[in-house]
Structures are given as structure tokens and as C-alpha cells.
Amino acid sequence: MTQVIRTVAELRPLVRAWKATGDLVGVVPTMGALHEGHLSLARRGKAECARVITTIFVNPKQFNNPDDLKKYPRTEEADVALLASVGVDVVFIPQPDEVYPEGFITTVSVGGVSEPLEGRMRPGHFDGVATVVTKLFGMTMADQGYFGQKDWQQLQVVLRLVRDLNLPITIVGCETIREADGLAMSSRNVRLTPQGRAVAGVLYSALTAAAQDIRAGHADRMAIREAAEKVRAAGFERVEYIELRDAETLMPSDDVRRPRRMLAAAWLDGVRLIDNIPV
Ligand code: PAF
Predict the structure, then answer these.
(1) What is the pLDDT of residues 54-83, one digit of tens each?
(2) Is 125 an active-site residue?
(3) What local confidence, expressed as pLDDT, does residue 65 receive?
(4) Looking at ligand 1, which residue's alpha carbon is closest to its atom 3?
(5) Does CATH place domain 3-174 in 3.40.50.620?
(6) Atom of ligand 1 nearest to the CA of 29
(7) Residue boundaries of the structural domains of the chain
(8) Residues 56, 5: contact at Cβ < 8 Å?
(9) Residue range 121-136: average pLDDT?
(10) Pocket flag, ligand 1, residue 37 (CB < 6 Å)
(11) Over pLDDT 90: what percentage of the chain?
(12) Top-level class of domain 187-278
């Protein structure tokens, strides 16, 4: 049975009891408004761990735009029902003052990998993510943490954080779940108009074509320029970036011997969509 727990004081004894019997504990951190992408993380957690906790917390510290925070969809009841349907053991839904009590002054800041791309476009975002993720790992005492590759840079930030701080948790990066037209699933997709939704898959198809061209020997710059043109021509208002980067450090890379990743952010219908693929 799925339990909803809202305080660390209630969560801790339960997790300690699980661990006392040798159970491996997985955590899937989310901000709610769940879709198939989140559920796939929970299912993977269930396949690998005896117990799975999904956290739902819309973290104010990672929103650099107050309007985005206000508009962020909140669908707690439906989320809990979905998580129960995949057999999650606990849904942990703390209030903001449970996570950031009066007087909270600590920030976890990961250098390097958190600075370019999303870090440059959304100042303070990754400090907010790193701080809350560190707290959620401490609160849940989980052994394994499940994150989607859709937020590739976030995944690299979390991997770095865990390595640098010797946190006793293993991070599992899971494949992006896509709609039939290739659009990466995201809680923000519901804000697209029907017209926007009809063309949103072009972001993925343009990235895929560019990656194929680069692998076939075309110049990186040219392939990226063509991808940006396709995205604009489809009706996106703005392409914030399409970049080819070292998959781990997120620094510019033309070293074909190391894994590289093409990452993009673009605006459609006033909604900021991000995506990335291996090259
Ligand atoms: O990816 C998200 O939903 C959030 O950034 C996370 C990891 C739950 C932290 O608030």
C-alpha cells in the first residue's frame, strides 16, 4: 500500500525499519504534475529496489522566474493515484517549511558543470536543485536516486555533487520518455496550445537530423545552424541555444573520442522546452 508522508519525523523511522531488514531504498525526486516519464523512473526504482519513495516538492529555490513558480502545475491527488498504480511505497510531500525551516541559510553550489547552458540562462537554478536534492537524499536516506536524462545537465550536476560530497547514494540516469512525435515528456507540455503541440516534436527531429549529419562528417556548426533554422521555421518563437558539448563536463567539445551531447532550449507558445540527445 502507498503511504503519503509529509514530515521527516514520520519518514525516518519507516526508512530505518526497512533498512534494518536489508531492504534497498530508491528515491525518485519530482516536483509533481507527473507524467509517463516520472512513472518510468518509479518503475525502474521498483525493479531495482525493495522500497521506493517518490518525493513531490515544488522547490521555490530553483525557480529564477516567480511567474514560472506560480504557474507550475500542482496535481497532488492525481499524482498520488498514479504513484500508487505503479506500487511506490511512500509519496513524501513536505511543506516548504519542512524543507526550508525558519533560519535556513545553507546553499549547495556545484561549480563547473552547472555554469554553462541552463546555468547561464537560469542564474541560481542549479544551486536550488543541488540544495534541495542534497536535502532530499538526507531526508529519505535512499540508497539509489533515479533521474531522467531529459534534464541532462541536472543529471551531471547531481552526479558531480554526489561524487564531490561522498554522498552514500548511487545515481541512476534513465532514458528520456517521448511522445509519438518525439517530444520529450515534460510537466510543461500541458501549457502548449494545440497548434504549438502539433509542431513541438520538431525540436527533437531537428536535433536528431543534426546529430546524424555530424556523425556522417558534416561540420558541427553548419549542422547546428540548420537545426536552429528548422526549429524557427516550425513556429518556435526563439531558440535559446543548440550546443554540442562534452557529455560529462558540458564544456564545448570537438573531441570525437569522448561522448558528446547535443543540448537545446527553445520557446514555443511562451513555454520553454529543453531536450538533448547523444551525438
Ligand atoms: O527535475 C526535477 O523535477 C527537479 O529539478 C528535482 C530534481 C525534483 C529537484 O527539485
Answers:
(1) 999 999 999 988 988 998 889 999 999 999
(2) no
(3) 87
(4) 30
(5) yes
(6) 8
(7) 3-174, 187-278
(8) no
(9) 98
(10) no
(11) 96
(12) alpha beta
